[in-house]
Amino acid sequence: MFEDIDFRKMESQISPLKGAWIDREVPEEVELLPNNRYAPGYAWMFSYEKRLKHRIEKTLGHPLGSLERRLFDSDGGLSEGFSNAFVHGNRRNAALPIEVHTAVGRGGLAFSIQDQGAGFDVASTIRAAKRNGRTFFHIAGNGIRSLLTSQRIVVSYSRGGRTLNLMLMFSSLSQVLADLAGQRGE
Predict the structure, then answer these.
(1) Alpha-carbon separation of residue 136 from 4, 86, 131, 140 (angstroms)
(2) Tally of domains in the chain
(3) Which end of the chain is least crowded, N or C, by CB within 10 Å?
(4) Residue 38 lies in a domain
């Protein structure tokens, strides 16, 4: 779901914050984890995602449950954001950093993913995606479609398309408990 909201406003919507940090990831410097299931050029993402997931869960004090798929799966918002920053923003240059701001709050999670690229015309891309539907996604890929069609993740761009902001709100305590139960198979 696309909204015109910046990262600071996202932080205030998920407050009070339990934790916040900034990671500066240089893909060629990321220590790779064993059993990496990503393609070689993307192996850094697998390792970084696992470390980030662990840190988020530690800050929350419990597992992400089914929310993990919304963030880190093949269509997950963060996975798409990291991939887009690396491929389109940094043009697969593994020496260029990607900066990730993370905020963990009682009301949800917020992220800002910043690449070093030239950016893109966000407004015209969103208009084209809405106007052309499936034909747009046929030529443009799945990343932006996944982000725009997500019902639980709020998406915005800043810095001329060089920064992707994502917010996942915890809809209610009952939803969080259901998500946790889903992970345990109950």
Answers:
(1) 22, 21, 8, 6
(2) 1
(3) C
(4) yes
